[in-house]
Amino acid sequence: MAQCPRNTIANRLLCAVPSAASPAEAASDDRVTGLPRPKPWLITTAKNSPFIESVHVETPLDLAPTLGFYRAELLKRGWAETDGAVVEADRAVIAFTTSDGPAQLRLVRQDGRTIVDLSRRKPATANAGILPAPGKARLMLGNATEEEAVITINGQSVELAAGTGDGFRSVPETGNKSAAIPEMNLPAGKYNVTLKLASGASESRQFEVAADETWGLQAGPDGIALPVHLY
């Protein structure tokens, strides 16, 4: 997981914000998954497990140049778009076939940034321990900080002790989670999320989930909510 540093000089060097309409430039591929990322990015998380390769990226670039970047990069990798792509002014959903399993690219324009979720499910037999309820999205909550946190989703608050979830480390290996990790089964849709740390740092945002997906949502440093696509 990574995000732009709060140090002003480091922020300018690593995460300078261009015009939102600027063309996307290729950043280094994500080191965990090898999946592409545009430059600049504000927040990025990734997961590589027996079930999925996924990368979550939030960039100040507009949706159109971000989509153009991904279409070009994925074509270079031999990914083929399937029929039924949805491309609108503020969102896009495109499915791909690859030699290593089905993949999906989802982009949403929100709060002055484009949110990218790129994932490829692996062809291994799915472990029931990580599957969501049929037609639902499964959301596991964690806390990667050293202080208490509260995550509120559509008015429902969950208190998380420091270190809860341990980075969802049990999930990639077995598909099972510790009983200490709170979770929710949600209908597909957009949810209002507020994260508050004991130190007072906080963030409010929208978080979108689709049916038949499993996600982790972690409290991160500086009160940043970090989504991680788990299945």
Q: Would you write up a description of this structure?
A:
The protein contains three helices and 18 strands. The chain is mainly beta. About 10% of the residues lie in helices and about 45% in strands. It is globular, with a radius of gyration of 17 Å. The protein has helices at about 10-15, 65-75, 170-175; strands at about 1-5, 25, 40, 45-50, 50-60, 80, 85, 90-100, 100-110, 115-120, 135-145, 150-155, 155-160, 185, 190-195, 200-210, 215-220, 225-230. A hairpin with a 2-residue loop joins strand 8 (about 90-100) and strand 9. The relative contact order is 0.16. Residues about 5-15 have low confidence and may be disordered. The protein has two domains: about 1-120, no CATH class; about 135-230, Immunoglobulin-like, CATH 2.60.40. The strands form four sheets. Strands 1, 4, 5, 6, 7, 8, 9 and 10 form an eight-stranded antiparallel β-sheet that branches.
